[in-house]
Amino acid sequence: MAQDTHLEKELKEHEVSGTFVYDGIPGEERIKKQKYGELDRFISLYSKEPGQMIRILQKAQDIFGYLPEEVQAYIAEKTETPVSEVNGVVTFYSLFATEPRGKHTLNLCMGTACYIKGAQELMDTLKEHLKIDSGETTADHLFTIKSTRCIGACGLAPILVVNGDVHGNASPGDIIKIIKKYRKGEEVESKKH
Amino acid sequence: MKVKNIDDLREIKEIFYPLVKQRLGHRNGLGLTQVMVCSGTACSSAESQDLRIALERELDRRGLNDSVRVFKTGCFGFCQHGPIVMVHPGEIFYCKVKPEDVKELVETHLMGGRVVERLLYQDHGQAVSNIEDINFFKAQKRIVLRNCGVINPEEIGEYIARDGYFALADIILNKKPAEIIDLISKSGLRGRGGAGFPAGRKWELTAAQDVSPKYVLCNADEGDPGAFMDRSILEGDPHSVLEAMIVAGYCIGAGQGYVYVRAEYPIAVERLEIAINQAREYGLLGKNLFGSSFDFDIGLRFGAGAFVCGEETALIHSVMGQRGEPRPRPPYPAQEGLWGKPTLINNVETYANIPVILREGWEWYSGYGTASSKGSKVFSLAGKINNTGLIEVPMGTTLRTIVFDIGGGITGGKKFKAVQTGGPSGGCIPDKYLDLPIDYETLKEIGSMMGSGGMIVMDEDNCMVDIARFYLEFTQDESCGRCTPCRVGTKRLLEILKRITEGRGEIEDLELLEELAYDIRDASLCGLGQTAPNPVISTLRYFKDEYLAHIKEKNCPAGVCKELLHYTIDEAKCAACGLCVKACAAGAITGEKGKIYRIDPDKCIKCAACVLKCPKNAISKGARREAIKLENTGIHTGPGGQEERAAL
Fold first, then answer.
1. Which one of B158, B362, B592, B619 counts the least CB within 10 Å of its CB?
2. Is there a contact between B322 and A50 if contact means CB atoms under 8 Å apart?
3. B11/chain A closest Cα distance in angstroms
4. In terms of CA atoms, which chain A residue is nearest residue B265?
């Protein structure tokens, strides 16, 4: 993910300075090529071992943010696996997304401990506040709501995880504050550019 | 260095033992203060890593690096009061230490030699400095978790200092596989993944197969919501699992092992990777272990979020990188598992028991527990309980000891209603069984199961119909769709439960629920489907009155089911300010300034917007109550019946 933003920044710099074309390849194309290059290296590292499809897909999702059909087909070709099998694996596991996700993923723990301590109320608040359903992304591509299975920090229930940061003992009011904080950070960042 | 024999291990032990010895309470004149910072997931979520870095920085700034060292360690179990910091010598146990407390901790304790009273655990206003005086730890027996909180999980030398890998060396150099399998059988160890199949029997079956290669698998796909035992073991003591897997490989004749771990457990994955690499460096994994002809290596495979992958045949498919769907058994994995070869699958906790059994002997181990269930069991205690955390008790401990002595009772002084064990496959246990000694058999008898060890405590504010619905939603969502009883059956079960919680249930639904639940149980292909109806069956058995209240009276006694809730304004508290009227989008609140306000239950959409606005906290949600007519004002409170509403 960090690499993504790095690349995007690089791209933006090129735009400003007017040197949008680099090495004869347009910037967007170049980034795409880099991403596939990274994936290639990973595939060649792991495809020798049997049964590493899930790990390859995880890496691909890290690189691209999600797994569009194009990437799935690419992996299928490289690993000499039928594309139907790759797609079968992608759609089976809840970790894989076939749609792009928002910049910030709001993972709300829906494990039992969180549920009996009011996670449902938090989910309702999130949905109501962002006007999207669980699993959807806001129109500005900032937030995606996801319900996740127990992350095992039940002592802090109920829990909201945003980009890997854990917010424990959350109340509906806290959650709105957290969203506001991330949205504010966004505005500051966009002003910089 | 490569370890070749027991003397090499002893050499490593000598280097690290002084550190470990001091942590075990010995004053061995080490001239070093050790600060152990819990680095499990729960404490890390509460910023224990920031704390550790701040502590190191502060020590560095004051030039205390030579006399004080900070270590990461595994879970102490007292997660409710994290982050936990323990200082040796003295075994001073600090709770809820924040990065901003670092300065005081360093100045007062590490430099001044005085205990920071403020950060000690407070037991009814009394500060407790010693871990043994805390009720939470008194009734526990830490066998599997013996190294959690004692050693640094990222240093193999400390595991060796705790006599780790000695048993392995002895076995490879001096013992026959059959002897070891016999010893495991005698210990009475049963699979800790849930079903409780005798571990020794499983090893024997796999060893008896005359096919090669064979594989050893470790199931670390802990999918039960509210369960974190396996994760804590992997985070706190990963080498105990690796050692047991190597022993298993030696006993059954396998050369390759895999740990199948949830990708959602980043800390556990990292520690496992470190542990595997260190074991390889020391020659404890790889070719010709201890100079013998035995080769063994361990790889990691990641789960990608599918509950059904905890089932062994589904897990095998997932390890091979395919869809994690189960298949009918037999053939059992012991006969045909990974890539069609004999495979031994055990759960993390089962493996973690093995090094202790080998070291202390089966006689010692079988001294704990009940007639049919030996040893101890790790539980993750969560829910409406004062001390959420990770505990380990001998088999046969009563629920009362766990909930009230170790767990410290119910939060907020509420009334205990039930304990849910076994996750979505288990059931709810009511208060009448609080004194039952728990083991595999007793739990099964009362309609629940041991499961992997999740234990969720519920109080009077939890609706049991809603809990059954919650679990069914989980299993229905996680059903892989392979067999019809589970795929369609759980969906229908969920529909009925939803109908009941929304106030549209009929009395016939109860019969239908029961019939369908037994059909799913009997006809499903794998463990997920066979146990999915358990939450329904057990709540129907013990909490039928709640189902009846939902169906007959359209009332949720616990006040959880949204459609059956009613918001009312407490006349005594209402200041008649009118804020609630403005907040109400449905126009359900009537009244005027200076007079008491009322909520019309027919119009109310139960959004709770008025509750947030009310400055006097006069609006409460609750079960339907009969209308009360206040004599002095002539005002009705409560939703009441149709005729009462007419008076609004």
1. B592
2. no
3. 36
4. A151
Tokens of B304: 């990608």
Tokens in use for B307? 């509950």
Q: Which of B38, B39, B41 to substitute to test the interface with A, most A CBs within 10 Å? A: B41
Which of B41, B320, B470 lies at the smallest CB-CB distance from A152? B41
d(CA A138, CA B124): 47
Tens of pLDDT, residues B273-309: 999 999 999 999 999 999 999 999 999 999 888 899 9
Task: Say yes or no for a CB contact (<8 Å) between A149 and B382.
Answer: no
Nearest to A52 among B232, B321, B382 (CB): B321
ipTM, interface predicted TM-score of the complex = 0.82
- Degrees (nearest 5) of the Cα angle A48, A53, A55? 95
- Identity of the residue in A49, A96, A116 whose CB atom sits nearest the CB atom of B304: A96
Query: Which of A52, A113, A156 faces B226 most closely, judged by CB atoms?
Result: A113
Is the Cβ pair B420, A52 closer than 8 Å?
Answer: no
Tell me if chain A has a CB within 8 Å of the CB of B382. yes
**Nearest chain B Cα to A172, which residue?**
B612
Per-residue pLDDT band for A193 (boundaries 50, 70, 90) equals very low
* Residue among B383, B394, B387, B391 nearest B428 (CA): B383
Ranges A28-32, B4-8, B417-421, B508-512: which has the least confidence = A28-32
Calculate what percentage of chain A has a pLDDT beyond 70. Answer: 82
The upper half-sphere exposure of residue A26, i.e. CA atoms within 13 Å in the direction of its Cβ, equals 2
Radius of gyration over alpha carbons of chain A, in Å?
Answer: 19
CA distance B304 to chain A (A): 5
The per-residue pLDDT for B648 is 40
- E strands, B4-84, are 33-38, 68-73
Q: CB-based contacts of A60: which residues, under 8 Å, 6+ apart?
A: A39, A42, A67, A71, A75
pTM: 0.88
Other C-beta atoms lying within 10 Å of the C-beta of residue B613: 15
What percent of chain B clears pLDDT 70, i.e. is strictly above it? 96
Give the nearest partner residue to B306 out of A92, A110, A112, using CB atoms: A92
d(CA A105, CA A108): 9
Instruction: Tell me if B304 and A88 make a contact (CB, 8 A cut-off).
Output: no
Band of pLDDT at residue B632, cut at 50, 70 and 90 = low
Contact status of B112 with chain A (Cβ, < 8 Å): no
pLDDT at position B623, please? 61
Q: Helix, strand or coil for residue B369?
A: strand
What phi and psi, each to the nearest 5 degrees, are found at residue A93?
-95, 135
> How confident is the model over A113-145, as pLDDT tens digits?
888 888 988 998 899 889 998 888 898 888 999
pLDDT band at A187 (very low <50, low <70, confident <90, very high): low
Distance CA A122, CA A110 (A): 10
CA pair distance B580, B617, nearest whole angstrom: 11
Report the pLDDT value the prediction gives residue B332, as an integer from 0 to 100: 94
Task: Supply the mean pLDDT for chain B.
Answer: 90
Q: Is B613 on the interface with A (CB under 8 A)?
A: no
In whole angstroms, give the CA distance from residue A103 to residue A94: 19
Set of chain B residues whose Cβ sits within 8 Å of the Cβ of A113: 225-226, 382-383, 388, 456
Token pair for residue B425?
């496959």
* Contacting residues for B381 by C-beta, under 8 A, at least 6 apart: B387, B388, B389, B390, B391, B402, B406, B407, B455, B457
Q: Of B318, B146, B143, nearest to B223 (Cα)?
A: B318
